[in-house]
Request: fold
Amino acid sequence: MIQVNVTLLIQVINFLVLLFLLNELLYKPILAKIREREGLIRQDQEKAAALQQRVQDQEKRHQEELAKAKQTAAQEKAELMAKAKKREAEILDKARAEAAKIVDEMKAAIEAEATEVRRAMRDQMSPLAQAICEKILGRAA
Reply:
């Protein structure tokens, strides 16, 4: 059975004093620090979100500028390619004409030289050398 007497009253007073002291010395400071940290965390999250938005905006601007630069570069490349193809065609036509002229001159010179060499070889070859040449070339010299 529970007896209500002075010790119960003292225990209740001790409990209330302890509750008051713990509340003032421990719970309130800890709760204040927790709220302060929550506030700092919230501020940091807001700053991070703002920075993230700035980064996204800058990335978007960067992508737009990059797209414009690519488009400009593509146009310049197309213009330069057209000019280069035109110049290439001119150079090739000129080179073909010069090459044809040189080839004709070289053919004539080679043919004249070959005729001269053949004539000189026929005059200077001995019958044995002529027979060896005919075997190697597979035709009469």
Observations:
- The radius of gyration is 53 Å.
- Residues 6-101 form one domain.
- Residues 6-124 form the longest helix (119 residues).
